[in-house]
């Protein structure tokens, strides 16, 4: 029916896709668009789960009307009060004045701050451990503070194993008719955007995600219904494991991301020569990014993905090249830890950038080791540098070997 899809008996996806928004949160590029997911339960009572961004509110409201077929709307559950999900709450309350709104205490506070004045008799305040029955379906509420806002709730339908996970397990990318993880090639087409979404939006809050994962591990979850992206109905362990790794700041791959900052191409060439040396040694899990034309959200995503990060930068007015500085600042802001970093520096008259980057990392990033084998380029890569690049490649390969051995020992 129109763009509505059935998730499981009694439950429907009623959200919308946005291909017009260039920047999610006015900061993250979303070339594949984004979906705002909402769900509707037809039980003895009728229940809408969250609302949507204003950009797709018209279709959302239409879906509610269609599915209700004249029945009243009894409840609206609000898991998260960020405006990409709560924009249409007011409109739902106007259209269905008898609807009761279920949310956390802080959820109602934020509604009030936004200017949605829900009447006291309309409010149902829930907290961790509370349950609420709509007939056949009973919801158990789970608090998920700081994943990634303080008021966030998740809820679990004990009758069918559906977890409404709020922004957790979401992704950038419009779903465009597809709904379930098994309707796409997730690894090929979705994992990168799911990682970029998680690491940039939730990445800072790893310990809070760990808390929720612990709670979730006690629930017999069969479906995960997030507020963006695909619904998960099989192979849940695969995605939960990704979340476990990301939130523990453990790399997914033993591999190398080389991020370079170069004005005239010489530092770029040094970065490329390191990539070549690594590949020649059999380490082909290597990606190279120009910080000046790669969105920092992509750099962060690959920082969470790979075990080894190489920062190659020019010296700029005795400082770190501004775009590289932004990237390193963002690493700190998102709590990046548990990585090995190598440095390539370049300067023409006073090369300070290597020391500055190392100092910043030592002072601000937890559990990040900087390898001793730094490559120092004096304007352009020369014959003497070749052995330094080879030594750095060897050091990175050795370090990866050691990490693999430690991991294997821990697993055996
Ligand atoms: C605006 C500007 C400021 C620079 N400041 C410094 C500096 O403070 N110290 C230094 O050694 N080199 C400085 N350089 C030289 C760069 O580090 C130079 O671009 C680099 O050595 C060549 O690398 P590239 O081809 O990757 O840009 C500066 C260059 C520019 C254009
Ligand atoms: Fe959010
Ligand atoms: Fe969201």
Describe the model.
It is a single chain. This protein is of the alpha/beta class. The protein has 13 helices and 23 strands. It has a seven-stranded mixed beta sheet with strand order 1-2-7-8-9-10-11. A hairpin with a 4-residue loop joins β14 and β15 (162-164). α7 runs antiparallel to α8 (236-247). The structure holds flavin mononucleotide and fe (ii) ion (2 copies).
How do the strands and helices of this protein lay out in sequence?
Elements: E1 5-8, E2 11-13, E3 16-18, E4 23-24, E5 28-29, E6 34-36, E7 39-42, E8 46-49, H1 57-68, E9 75-77, H2 83-86, H3 89-95, E10 100-103, H4 105-114, E11 123-125, E12 131-133, E13 138-143, E14 153-157, E15 162-164, H5 186-189, H6 191-202, H7 206-216, E16 223-225, H8 236-247, E17 253-261, H9 266-280, E18 286-290, H10 296-305, E19 306-316, E20 319-320, H11 322-333, E21 339-347, H12 353-364, E22 368-370, E23 375-378, H13 383-411
Parallel strand pairs: 8-9, 9-10, 10-11, 15-16, 17-18, 17-19, 19-21, 21-22, 21-23
Antiparallel strand pairs: 1-2, 2-7, 3-6, 4-5, 7-8, 12-13, 13-14, 14-15, 19-20
One fe (ii) ion (FE2) is lined by residues 82, 84-85, 167, 227-228.
Instruction: Characterize the quaternary organization of these chains.
Output: single chain
Bound molecules: flavin mononucleotide, fe (ii) ion
Major sheet attributes: 7 strands, mixed
Radius of gyration (Å): 24 Å
Strand order of the largest sheet: 1-2-7-8-9-10-11
Structural class: alpha/beta
Features:
412 residues, alpha/beta, seven-stranded mixed beta sheet, 23 strands, 36% helix, binds flavin mononucleotide, binds fe (ii) ion
């Amino acid at each position: 029916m129109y763009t509505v899809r059935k998730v499981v008996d009694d439950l429907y996806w009623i959200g919308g896709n946005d291909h017009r928004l260039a920047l999610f949160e006015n900061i993250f590029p979303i070339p594949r668009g984004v979906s705002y997911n909402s769900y509707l339960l037809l039980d003895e009572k009728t229940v809408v789960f969250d609302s949507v961004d204003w950009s797709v509110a018209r279709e959302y409201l239409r879906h509610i009307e269609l599915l209700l077929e004249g029945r009243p709307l009894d409840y609206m559950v609000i898991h998260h009060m960020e405006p990409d999900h709560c924009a249409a709450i007011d409109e739902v309350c106007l259209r269905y004045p008898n609807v009761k709104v279920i949310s956390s205490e802080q959820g109602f506070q934020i509604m009030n701050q936004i200017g949605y004045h829900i009447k006291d008799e309309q409010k149902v305040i829930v907290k961790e451990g509370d349950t609420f029955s709509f007939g056949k379906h009973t919801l158990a509420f789970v608090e998920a503070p700081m994943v990634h806002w303080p008021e966030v709730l998740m809820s679990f339908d004990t009758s069918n194993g559906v977890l409404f996970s709020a922004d957790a397990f979401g992704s950038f990318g419009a779903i465009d008719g597809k709904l379930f993880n098994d309707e796409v090639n997730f690894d090929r087409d979705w994992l990168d955007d799911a990682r970029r979404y998680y690491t940039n939006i939730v990445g800072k809050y790893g310990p809070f995600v760990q808390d929720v994962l612990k709670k979730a591990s006690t629930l017999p979850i069969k479906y995960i219904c997030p507020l963006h992206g695909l619904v998960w109905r099989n192979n849940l362990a695969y995605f939960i494991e990704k979340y476990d790794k990301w939130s523990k700041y453990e790399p997914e791959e033993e591999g190398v991301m080389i991020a370079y900052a170069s004005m005239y191409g010489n530092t770029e060439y040094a970065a490329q020569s390191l990539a070549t040396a690594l590949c020649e040694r059999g380490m082909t899990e290597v990606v190279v990014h120009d910080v000046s034309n790669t969105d920092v959200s992509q750099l962060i995503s690959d920082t969470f993905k790979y075990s080894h990060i190489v920062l190659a930068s020019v010296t700029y007015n005795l400082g770190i090249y501004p775009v590289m500085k932004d990237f390193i600042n963002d690493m700190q802001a998102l709590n990046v830890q548990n990585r090995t970093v190598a440095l390539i520096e370049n300067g023409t008259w006073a090369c300070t950038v290597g020391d500055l980057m190392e100092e910043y990392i030592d002072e601000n990033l937890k559990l990040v080791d900087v390898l001793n084998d730094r490559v120092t380029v004096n304007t352009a890569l020369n014959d003497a540098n070749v052995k330094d690049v080879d030594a750095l490649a060897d050091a990175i390969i050795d370090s990866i070997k050691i990490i693999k051995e430690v991991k294997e020992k821990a697993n055996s």
